[in-house]
Amino acid sequence: MTTLARGSDTLTRDALTVLQPGFTGTTAPDWLLRRLGEGLASVGLFGRNITSPEQLAALTAQLRTERPDVLVAIDEEGGDVTRLEARSGSSFPGNHALGAVDDTELTRAVARELGRRLADCGVHLNWAPSADVNSNPANPVIGVRSFGAGTELVARHTAAYVEGLQSAGVAACTKHFPGHGDTAVDSHHALPRIDVDADTLDHRDLAPFRAAIEAGTRAVMSAHILVPALDPDRPATLSRAILTDLLRGTLGYEGLIVTDGMEMRAISAGYGIERGSVLAVAAGADAICVGGGLADDETVRRLRDALVTAVRSGDLPEERLADAARRVRELAAWATAAAGTATAPDPEVGLRAARRALRVTGGADFTPLTEAPYVAAFTPVANIAVGAETPWGVGAELARLLPGTRTGGFSGEKAGEEALAAAGQRRIVAVVRDEHRHPWMPAALDTLLTARPDTIVVEMGVPQAPARGALHIATHGAARVCGQAAAEVITGAV
């Protein structure tokens, strides 16, 4: 594609302004700095860009040297989905653990501390929280990212999270509108479809977004899902009926509308990222998130030129693009003004929350371990939102409390037999994640518990399967602090 503009005219600057691209590396590449000078207003960060808080602060300072009001965004949900601590596991439990505690003041405090840490590093837009009601237990992509399966529970904790995060000067981006909880397909891989009537959607899925809007959420992220009751033809991200008529009109939302990642297969496979981006802005989206997988200057150029071409051909009204760019700049101005917001540090709030989220079965007759066990981690394939690079489980925390602890990962039909053989005579701690979604997991536990009834079971996903084992601990998430809290119970450290 031929470059259509030099980057100085208003149309081209607006096209760049609505993009939220990513990049590779831990310092800003030259092409990104150049685009910031040409009009790019936002940058998205991922785990690949971060090695430490100090490095992240230096990176965001580098970006602001080129553009002082640049909007730096990140996907930092806490819990299973962490970018700040992608290499170590999060210091905060995720939404499902907070919903299990059901203390909105705690949720507010966790979000405030997470926001404080982001703000200290120069990040002022967080693509969180998930306001999805996890109504389908088989959901492969939401799960513990949701506060729970109850609409009212999710609504009140979504509002508390938004308030806590924004009190630290970090804009919340409530997702995934109009609700990704009743899906059995991961939109990273294909287009999910939700076949329920409009009344069900209104009372079940939209309520948490109403609560977020009332709480003042500065941004809302669209879902790449088909909801025929709202629009039979186009996914929510590309639907004017959903983004403009419903979100802007019926719900009265005035803030920034951000798309989920446009390279996700739910959009890219059927529309391509260029056409998809044009359709999204035309439908009412203000910011195009791209960069989780496509993270280079060529992607920025392609999307910029697609938007410019669409305006010039009449496929995208110029005033719609200008309005989208205005909303991006308004949020950037808010973030710049809010950057001085100070909140008192609360470094232990995440661990306190993780401890309160535990649900322990069989504890009355349990004797804490004093000798190093064998940890059998029954490992499912990680969804893309979580990523495979983030460690999870209880092995590292048990090794800290009981030196000599050994860990092995197992999956598939032979997982139980292989774990038994690897454990030898050691006491076994079996760790599962969403046992109810993976038929081989309960079979593996059957094998272990038949041979070794004293096996301890730790469920680090959504606890749908019956509790069993000499001790059963449901952590409601796989963050590092969830593993720490479980290890404390197993060893009697608390």
Give a quick account of the main beta sheet: strands, pairing sense, barrel closure. Answer: 6 strands, parallel
Task: Work out the number of β strands.
Answer: 14
Radius of gyration from CA coordinates: 23 Å
Bin the helical content: 40-55%
Strand adjacency order, main sheet: 2-3-4-5-6-7
Secondary-structure-derived class: alpha/beta
Strand content: 5-15%
Tally the helices.
18
End-to-end C-alpha gap = 62 Å
Q: Which outline best applies? A: globular
Compute the average pLDDT: 94
Which spans of ≥5 residues are poorly predicted at pLDDT below 50? 1-7
Plain-language structure description:
This protein is α/β, with parallel strands linked by helices. It has helices at residues 10-17, 30-38, 53-66, 95-101, 104-120, 151-167, 198-205, 207-215, 240-250, 265-271, 273-283, 297-313, 318-338, 349-357, 395-401, 415-423, 440-451, 480-491; strands at residues 19-20, 42-45, 71-74, 125-126, 171-177, 219-222, 256-258, 288-289, 359-361, 374-378, 406-410, 428-432, 456-459, 471-474. The chain contains 18 helices and 14 strands. α9 links the parallel β6 (219-222) and β7 (256-258). It is globular and about 70 Å long.
